[in-house]
Amino acid sequence: MRAILPALLLSVTLALPGHAQEDTANASAQLTPALRSADLVFNGITRSKDGRLFSPFQRQEKGRGLELGEWKSGKPAAYPDEAWNAWKPGDDAARAFVGVNAIRMGPDGDLWVLDKGAAGFGEAPLPGGPKLVQIDLATNAVRRVYPLEAATTPKSFIDDFRFNGRKVYLTDAGQPGLIVLDLDDGGTRRVLDGHRSMIAQRPLTGEDKVLLDPKGKPITVHADQLEVSPDGKTFYYQACTGPLYRIETRWLDDAAATDAERAGHIILHAATVSTGGTAIDAAGNIYASDADGLRILKIAPDGGTSTLVQDPRLVWVDAMWIDEEGGLWIPAAQVNRTKGFNGGKAALRFPTTIFRMEIGARPVRN
């Protein structure tokens, strides 16, 4: 099949088979609380090979609180230093974290940090704000900053990123499309701008409720989650409300290809639902959170979907991470209960928790 499947299939829902309920309950018992915070909201977790843990944090007030922290003795400390976390309105957006939205360990062992460059959800990026920051873990110092401003618009919300050799793919959840970054020359270009597969077809939901901005308007998040297959040949992506599509990476890497050509090679991979975050293992299985069903889905390379674990504690699981020991780190971020996504009223239930679960899978480090 060489084209997108009919829209009819996009409304497919994922049910939990009766025979799988016992296995799911057993999996729930394996959820181990690993990190907790009594007052902070995080939206991800990443772990170095030597066991260092980092999270991006969601400030609840502009210019106040952490953007990026390293967990030390169970508590986050500003990383790489206080200065990078001290941005406030009026400061230079190019020299500090304005709005960290995603982090991950790169294949080089450095910590990479995506700053959307906007102080609030739905706000325009600030001059110099959108950037990908590379941090040397040995020296705890910024090694290089890759500006992304040339590839953004006032509507852009650079959301997440993945590596594939010397290329980095980044989703734009505000101006629907992808950004391809070349790590060698720092050049950027946009692909599949405005394509239907990049655009959310319905408002965002969590715990079976439509999420609302502080003005009471339903929230829409376009191109968001993404993964690259272990062999680097397939790119998976979706709007925050699904479904999950795939395309061969060669069509993204080929600067001479047109978006019309690329569109002919997009395939519907799985009928995912409202999703907070994903991860992929070395066998090509994708783990995707179900923000309404409070569960983690396991999507096989052929698109077949099952439930890994379902638990009422898994409220808006965001960006997950698979460690070298076969553990899946699961941040129950509760983003849907924050003021920005709950009509201006916070409904968070502290502590916020990051769980770990043994899944016996090997990680991918493209």
Automatic annotation (TrEMBL):
<dbReference type="InterPro" id="IPR017996">
    <property type="entry name" value="MRJP/yellow-related"/>
</dbReference>
<feature type="signal peptide">
    <location>
        <begin position="1"/>
        <end position="20"/>
    </location>
</feature>
<protein>
    <submittedName>
        <fullName>Yellow</fullName>
    </submittedName>
</protein>
<dbReference type="InterPro" id="IPR011042">
    <property type="entry name" value="6-blade_b-propeller_TolB-like"/>
</dbReference>
<dbReference type="GO" id="GO:0005576">
    <property type="term" value="C:extracellular region"/>
</dbReference>
<keyword id="KW-0964">Secreted</keyword>
<dbReference type="Pfam" id="PF03022">
    <property type="entry name" value="MRJP"/>
</dbReference>
<keyword id="KW-0732">Signal</keyword>
